[in-house]
Give the backbone structure.
Amino acid sequence: MNRDFKVVGKEVKKIDALALATGEVKFTADITLPDMLHVAFLYSPYPHAEIEEIDTEEALNTPGVELVLTYKDVPQTLHTTAGQGYPEPSPYDTRILDKRVRFVGDRVAIVAARTREIAQEAAKKIKVKYKPLPYNLDPEKAQESEPVPPQDAYHLLPTIYEPRKNIAAGIKLKFGDVDVAFEKSDIVFEHRFEVQYASHSAIEPHAAVAFYDERGRINIISTTQVPFHARRIVSRVLGIPLKNIRVIKPRIGGGFGGKQEVFLEQVVALVTMITKKPSKVVLSRREVFTSSRTRHPMITWYKAGVKKETGEITALKLKALMNAGAYGPHALTVMANAGSKVLPLFNKIKNLLFEGYTVYTNLPVGGAYRGYGATQGYFGFNVMLDMIAEELGIDVLEFFKKWHIKKGETSPIFEELGEGKEGVAQVIRSCALSECIEKGAERIEWYKKRRKKLREGDKVRGVGAAILMQGSGIPKIDMGAAYIKMNEDGSFNLHVGATDIGTGSDTILAQIAAEEIGTSIDKMIVYSSDTDFTPFDVGAYASSTTYISGGAVLKCARKIKEEIIKVAAEMLNVPMDAVFIENGVAYTEDRTQHVSFEDIALYSMYSRNQHQIQAVASHIGLESPPPFMAQFAEVEVDIKTGRIEVLKFVSAVDCGQPINPVLVEGQVEGATVNGIGYALWEDYIFDEQGRLKNASFWDYKIPSIKDVPEVETIICKTYEPTGPMGAKSVAEIGINGPIPAIANAVYDAIGIRLKSSPFTPEKVLKAIKEQGLKL
Amino acid sequence: MKVRFKLNGEEVEVEANPASRLLDVLREKFGLIGVKEGCGEGECGACAVLLDGRVVHSCLVPFANVMGKEIITIEGLRKTEEYRIIEESLLDAGSVQCGFCTPGFVISIYALLKNNPNPEDKEIREAISGNLCRCTGYQMIIDGVKLAAKRGEKLWKA
Ligand code: FES
Ligand code: FES
């Protein structure tokens, strides 16, 4: 199935890279309009309270202030800020502003003024009398605590939702009988794992701008991964017709899921609607930490029953408890993914139980974050496999290879567990996981280093591994569309709803189109994500762009190619099937005659049977073929200080046919380094009142260039028959492995099992004390 | 307060609150949007500019401090041959993903290569450790710097 590609699979440079490097291109915060108002928020200092009185007079009288809004002044429509397809599988539990505040950092008021400073100062002058309410910061106590969501919160889907008990979502899934199987197994493993809060930390903070255009429509430019969902949500929340809203995505400075939330667009739109002036909001880094969205913390309990002789896992139970924070965007689906993106990897387990709950607490709000539940689920999963292999006395890599899902196989979970509803049955059509394991092992020198416990003074080395899968879009839900038209000079406009948030999707979509049409990439003019001028796309999430939007572009390119051939055949006076295209030229079969794209376009516009050569196509994924990955860490643990240093990190990935290998590596390495930061340091530190104590890059360290080890990416190419040009998506998977790979490497070095991330020196020393070094 | 300084090769004078951040003055009074704000607390380097040839984080520099000094932003650097080499190398190495951090990195890389035309891995890491990037994982940025060092060999030594 290996095609000979001309544009795809090549190291084509990102088409927008030049303008980005020069700093000329506009990001949302760079947009300034005449008379523009700047928006600031007043946030709750309490984890849970009722606003008894609110006095805005002094703020309003501050020179330069034009508007102050409290809950009394804004539409009270319940909604979710989760930028998901409709009906969203997230509860409607949020108002733009509410009489009740539910975490430190919840919004109390909105101020709009001539400058950002004036707005911020004025916000401080708002006098609020709060009635503090009982609050809870512990997900394990959520069900007995004061209800967090509003009385009238509801869910659009028929799913487990019990707001009075602080249950934001629940899932129970069962195959076979785990209890009987546990009884019969030779060894039973049972362990609790925990992962923490974290910030996406895209370097560009969230921002949004709104203004009226000359036709009186609200235009919104924002740092969004989901322009079409943003339009729909703003329309509903503000009660204005969808047709009167246009959402434009400019360049985005990274998203990672953090910008899949619609919580600023409605605010600037409202300010502009009331004041009739353009408005802008740019969050400070502190605000991004406290009041945007976060990684959902999760506790998982794994229990596995194993047959000693064969190494077969006969039963597996996964219980998950996820902390939603004060509101429930993605509460159901992130938690569901902890099972659905993890358990199918070992598809031969006959008795399976997955039970998950997401609960409300009075803490910052979780949301979509690269890895989306899989990151949380894979920690315990891979550590368990490492433990089992050790107990069985076999190499964990052999254990992985024997039991992981293979090409031609399936898992019942694919069908049972989807995004807010049942899933879609699928058979794996491409899988190079075993090859990934072997190649990665070679690169990390597994067999030379494993179990050697190389020691120098207080420092001991070890290696560990993890295996992973993710998905490519949400099957039968995610849709993307593309439009292509041909210009007189043989160039093409490619319009896609797909949202390039720095990933390079504009580039790879242009590559797919150019490849299929038979032209070069410089002939493609890409315009993306503008609700007025591009067709629909769900947006950039769930690893969907390459697979879904790429699928739409491929279909669209096929159609327009057909149109081109039709005209060429007419010009060359031969039947259509006697024409082929190569490098922007249409030839007759025997190559005796030809017409260039330019000739064809000119002819179609001015000569005969005039028409615009164009095509449009949509695509939905009928399956969600998983990319696979094996990740390896080599660590050095200082047994005196407890400090872990990652010396080397290797990721071997099967992403089908890479459309652009450099961009694939970029995705994998970016995700990996983010995952290493999450494994070792990144965490939210709260005081006893739920106040975030480290809301800055100063106190919340994301990896800098000095912290990152040598990271290496190996691409193990396959061909995914359902993907565009054989491709699968690859943006998320790399973030899932660092926690378990590092934990397993630490065990290899010093015999300590780490079960709660981040693996700070304090935690390592504590574990050494509790478990005792095994050197 | 009126402050005179040299900005991207030109003498300028501007009226602004002396306590305001250099970052805001550059963005708002001069429209130099290549200077980005990622954190406002001196940690991310997206706002990096050259002050008398040294890399500074403009979000931490009070505007009054630039009196009589020379500031070069990415917009000023853009016209130079050195810039062209750095830019091409970063592009070829795949160092640009979202690009929000890139202008800041370019400033730091320029300062590094000017002082140390042939930096070792460790020196590269040291020199650009004040710039954060969440997209790339840094490996490709290091590759880009090495490429620029090689390609601009003569230029850096000049
Ligand atoms: S904005 Fe100046 S260092 Fe981040
Ligand atoms: S490329 Fe996005 S932060 Fe560096």
The CA atoms of residues 23 and 59 of chain B lie 5 Å apart.
